[in-house]
Amino acid sequence: MSSDLLDALTALEKQKGISREVLVDAIEAALVTAYKRNFNQAQNVRVDLNLGVGTIKVFSRKDVVGEEVEDDRLQITLEDALLINPAYEVGDIVEQEVTPRDFGRIAAQTAKQVVTQRVREAERGLIYEEYIDREDDIVNGIVERFDARNLYVGLGKVEAVLPMTEQIASETYNPHERIKVYITKVERTSRGPQVFVSRTHPGLLRRLFEMEVPEIFEGIVEIKSIAREAGDRSKISVFTTNEEVDPVGSCVGARGARVQSISNELNGEKVDIVEWSEDPVIFVANALSPSKVLDVHVEEEDRSTTVVVPDYQLSLAIGKRGQNARLAAKLTGWKIDIKSETDARELGIYPRFEEEFQADEADVDEADVYSDEETALDSTEETEEVETDSIDLYQDEHQ
Q: Could you tell me if 343 and 379 lie in one domain?
């Protein structure tokens, strides 16, 4: 073996990050292929590559059998094997050197091609291992090219595929533009690792909040659920066990700086941040923000709720094309039926159920009524005294 090949192995190990053992295995496999192809040999052979002394040797391998040999290229009788070494037994493997005189010259080109292929495969393996660990993570990429269905984003060592279905409809992508993408899947193919990315996946929103909000990254604030209609509007529920931390305020940031930064990254997508609660009444009411909620009736059996809102906020609660209600239902995992206050009163479900409401009124005793009237009277007398004092003061000043 020439010193040039040794130098090449060292260089590949440093530049490509491929271990020398992998490269040696590739060369040995290449030399076996070259020997069989160029010398028209079908026997089982082994190539020994000695890096220490720089030699290449080819050994034929034959199985030791009893008396009958079916293929003399693959088998040898015990009698002949004992002539080579008296220690051989049936079932052993006999190795004999069969290195051709001009083997190095003839095999060089073939070996080079196979080595190149093995090196390429090793590189692909390293890339695959790198990106398979980054599934469900966010990366920076550069828009490289388009075709009829996909957009291709350069991630450095590999080109990722951004399918049309994973693109935000309102976004326009320009060549050489830098964008953040979410890795959804990494596949091993014959052409190398294939990375698929997304701009619409809810995981992208989650990772952006983890990058922008230290409280989420450190685990102080937890993202419980996300509902997203990419490019238009999203809702995110957050929670914390630390009473000194406001989970919603942490995500919004000073003057809305944190959430605005995320919105800008998503091409102006609006993000509603609500506080998560174990109580579905509170959680559903929060999820319908920015609408005001008067009451929430819960049906545990079919995980459905009936929400009562003021008449003037019915359209706000439902949202444009039902978007607010749809996102709230996806965020909470509960079915949501929204009723105006007027409709709810007509149906007898607000305030609460009519029977309960009437029973509550009957339970109010005379003392409570008197107390309320007395309080109202006292309030009226105090108001009159204040008005009298104000008039006296005005007169004194003008005298």
A: no
Per-residue model confidence (pLDDT) at position 76: 85
Element (H, E) at 76: strand 75-77
Residue 169 and residue 117 share a domain: no
Question: For residues 158 and 279, what is the distance between their CA atoms, to the nearest angstrom?
Answer: 46
CB 111 within 8 A of CB 34: yes
Structure tokens at 103: 């083997």
pLDDT confidence of residue 107 = 60
Residue type, 268: G
Closest alpha carbon to 234 in 136, 335, 328: 328
**CB 237 within 8 Å of CB 224:** yes
For the stretch 142-175, pLDDT in tens is 999 998 889 999 998 899 999 999 999 889 999 9
Q: How many CB atoms lie within 10 A of CB 393?
A: 10
CATH number at residue 121: 3.30.1480.10
Residue where a domain stops, chosen among 65, 92, 125:
125
What's the pLDDT at 303? 95
Q: Beta strands 55-65 and 75-77: pairing type?
A: parallel
Lowest mean pLDDT among 51-55, 135-139, 198-202, 295-299: 51-55
Residue 29: what pLDDT? 81
Give the residues across from 336 on adjacent strands. Answer: 305
Residue 185 burial (CB < 10 Å; 0-12/13-18/19+)? middle
Classify 60 as helix, strand or coil.
strand
CA proximity to 138, closest of 196, 182, 184, 177 = 182
- Domain ranges, residue 281: 277-356
- What's the rounded mean pLDDT across residues 131-137? 92
Query: In total, how many domains does the chain have?
Result: 4
Alpha helices, H only, 17-102: 20-38, 78-84
Q: Note whether residue 399 is domain-resident.
A: yes
My answer on whether 120 and 140 are in the same domain is no
211-220 long-range CB contacts below 8 Å, 24 or more apart?
211/138, 212/253, 212/258, 212/261, 212/262, 213/250, 213/251, 213/253, 213/258, 215/240, 215/245, 215/247, 215/250, 215/251, 216/250, 216/251, 220/245, 220/250
Beta-bridge mates of residue 46: 59
Helix (H, G, I), strand (E, B) or coil at 236: strand
In a shared domain, residues 374 and 295: no
Query: Which of the two residues, 82 and 1, has the higher pLDDT score?
Result: 82
